[in-house]
# Entry
Amino acid sequence: MHRKREPGAPPVVYRTARCGLRATRAQKARLFGLLRSAGDVWCCVLELNRWRRQRQDAPLAGYRELCRELTAAGPGAFGELDTTAARSVLRRYSDAWFAAAARRKAGEISVRFPRRKRALVPVRWYAGTFTLDGRLLRLPTAKGCPPLLVRLDRDVPYPAEQVRSVTLGFDAGRLYLDVTAEVPVASYPPGQGPDPARVAGVDLGIIHPCAVAGPGGQQLLVSGRAIRAECRQHLRDGRGRSRTAARRAPKPGQRGSRRWRQHRRRERAAEARHRRRVRQAQHEAAKAVVSWAVERRVGRSRSATPAAS
# Structure
């Protein structure tokens, strides 16, 4: 949701921080219930458009049209999921549908419309519908259901008045919350801001994620050996787990055992942990480059292109 900014207001950017949740077993059950209810909303939209395709009717893809169908369903149709969270799912579907339509119109015939059902779908609440007090978050629920209180595992790095939305998601057995805030663009005193005449060359690589050459012969080299070591170790561990579980793998068409499902669960958790570590290392590398450029008042950057062979 984007608010209309008043003329003359300072420019802002939207930043998102991911926080974990410290929830009890009952709270986790209710949070997963919200994600499952959001998945039911997604599947209902898919089924509705499937029926319309069978009758050769136009699909319902507009956000307002989908909201009318949600209103016609009545309250309490999707468990504890409130109207705001359900509409966020409709917004997600509408954006995906029109994005696919635009790409197909541009000539990308391989692009498909959203028709895959999902068991769990992230839900979003906008400012004014939730309450954030320090680490305590109060999420709204459907009419007649008690509100849901959860505690974050760390402090949100933005003031509460700048938070514009929170998104509840799920990744490899872990619940998380994405907090999006409206942060004003940094301002500098006269004579201390970035100078457009100062140009830095940036070369992106694999061994070294960033190599920067600034004005006056100053240079910065960000090492990426830790990322490469993490990727190689993850690949080595994955091969070892696959060899160990090969004898327990079910045959094609055979239902997996409990031990095999536990193995798949551990595989997903390891993949998610690997992605988090790589993403964190990439964030730290980018932050180091930006801080280096700000200290030297670099106003522009140019990417180095590889020489033609």
Q: What stands out?
A: The longest helix spans residues 258-295. The two ends are 48 Å apart (CA to CA). The CA atoms of residues 33 and 210 lie 43 Å apart.
